[in-house]
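seq as requested:
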Amino acid sequence: MKIAVTGSEGKLGSWLVNKFGFTPLECNILKPEEVKEAINTVSPDVIIHTAALTDVEYCQEHPKEAYEVNVHGTSNIVDVFTKGLLIYCSTVHVFSGNQYFAYSENHKPSPVNVYGFTKWAGEALASFGSQQTIVVRTSKLFDLAYLAHGIKLLQDGITQDYPTFITRSFVYTPHFIQGLLKLIDLRETAPNIVNIAGNGAWSYYDFWGNVAIELGYDSSYIMPRTIDNGELSRPKRGGLSTDLAARMGLPIYSAFGGIKAVKEIM
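struct tokens:
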């Protein structure tokens, strides 16, 4: 089985290609002819579609570009890849974050920012194609590169403040990918939408406090912030329920387990 990846230079895509050995689809997804040539050349059985504009602030300031990449780019993939399995990587940002502590696959999307709207539209486009599609939603991926800046501040004894009012189901990127690969194995009986995320939900303050403690730094440099400083509207409660994934037999890890895994490679 040949697995190809869009967005191979992005955070998730680079893990899939460089660490797990999957084939990059080397094309600009906004150019239909490039997409067609890349897919026909690789002839994949599975495409993991990670290519997207994911910077929330940038998407809010550039809505047309966000739509072109996240929606039109997905359409170009779907138009060509008509047989096989398409894994569409999505996000908790399709939800408002105002109703539940942990969103399940059955909750209705209600995004509050441009990024969330374009990813929700991308989900719909991918699902209406003639190929089999599984929408995989996650909450917040992290790895050593993501943690590096915060770790450097801890090493330098610089105080950092993190919001207590924004929660995510943090998951270590390799743990997320393990779930993704198991899902591909179960593709014949898999539902259309599956959450793969960390077990439970932590605030950013709790997450970074645990990072400091587990990595052996002084957690007193991690300060709680209870006041919204006017950040761009985003889901505050951003946990995802992983009950369905667990029932399917997908490996589900805690954020703490991911932090311990990072510690082992430092």
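The domain at 3-265 is CATH 3.40.50.720 (Rossmann fold).
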